[in-house]
Amino acid sequence: MIKKSLRYVFDRAGYEIRRKGVPFSNNFRKGGAECDRMINMICNNTMVAREGLVELYYQALFCERRNIPGDFIECGVWKGGAVGLMALVNLCSSSYRRHIHLFDSFQEICEPDESVDGKRALWQVRQRKENAGTKGRLAPLKGIYDHRGGPGTIQENRELLENKIGYDPKYLHYHQGWFQDVLPEVYHDIEQIAILRIDADWYASTKICLQYLFDKVVSGGFVIVDDYGAYDGCRQAVDEFVDGYGRPLYLNQVNQDIRYIIVP
């Protein structure tokens, strides 16, 4: 969260933040003019590092060029930048519109759980809010996004997706509420998923997304986890799911935080 904000600022300035002792990788994809144009359109609405956005561009482009069926879904959309990038790829590379689902509380993030989410999560939250709860309650941490102009709202997402990008509103589905409350109610309405992007931070929220949505991702589709390398709880939720899935699932690495699975 705070780490993402710092990376956003430095990334816009042309610098990369990385851990000491971790060599710079030359394996990150180069964006290209079309990719750069799209990222520039949505960059103020996301905290995802540039290499994550470039990879998402190519993942969405793969789905369009290979006719991978299914919807685009993001759990944890903030102000809609990553969703906007997927929408732009669809508009420019396909003759038909995909349904896009946005799952978010559209308010501040909920509490981390001190029993599982790790020291970094607790430290980062308390840096922004000294009296922040850490029991994993589904309660917004008021003020946690003040340094970023507040939490993302449905209206901000609509402004980007419908007005700036021009995506047909009838294909956009806004699901407001905590994942634990919303997903059990609506997951059965989603038939197939081409890209499932999870930016859920904590253990419980990551786990519920995988539990209800992973099996709807089609063969050749992508499951992207934004915070795998950032927070212990997110990593544990993914590792538990992968280990218990019953078929081998390979975690591909984008940067020190982001991982993705190509569903077999």
Structure characteristics:
39% helix, alpha/beta, 264 residues, seven-stranded mixed β-sheet, Rossmann fold
Can you tell me about this structure?
- The protein has 264 residues and is of the alpha/beta class.
- It has one domain: 3-Layer(aba) Sandwich (Rossmann fold).
- 39% of the residues lie in helices and 14% in strands.
- Strand 4, helix 8 and strand 5 form a beta-alpha-beta unit.
- It is globular.
- It starts with a helix and ends with a strand.
Quick structural summary:
The protein has one domain: 3-Layer(aba) Sandwich (Rossmann fold). The chain contains 9 helices and 7 strands. A hairpin with a 5-residue loop joins β6 and β7.
- How much helix, percentage-wise, in residues? 25-40%
CATH superfamily: Vaccinia Virus protein VP39
Number of domains: 1
Radius of gyration in whole Å, from Cα?
17 Å
Extract low-pLDDT stretches: 11-16, 18-27
Distance between termini? 31 Å
Q: What is the CATH first-level class name?
A: Alpha Beta
Strand order of the largest sheet: 3-2-1-4-5-7-6
Major beta-sheet overview:
7 strands, mixed
Shape: globular
| Helix/strand structural class | alpha/beta
Task: Return the string of H and E elements.
Answer: HHHEHEHHEHEHEHEE
Number of strands: 7
Q: How does CATH name the architecture?
A: 3-Layer(aba) Sandwich
Count the helices. How many? 9
Mean pLDDT: 90
Say what the CATH topology is.
Answer: Rossmann fold
Strand content: 5-15%
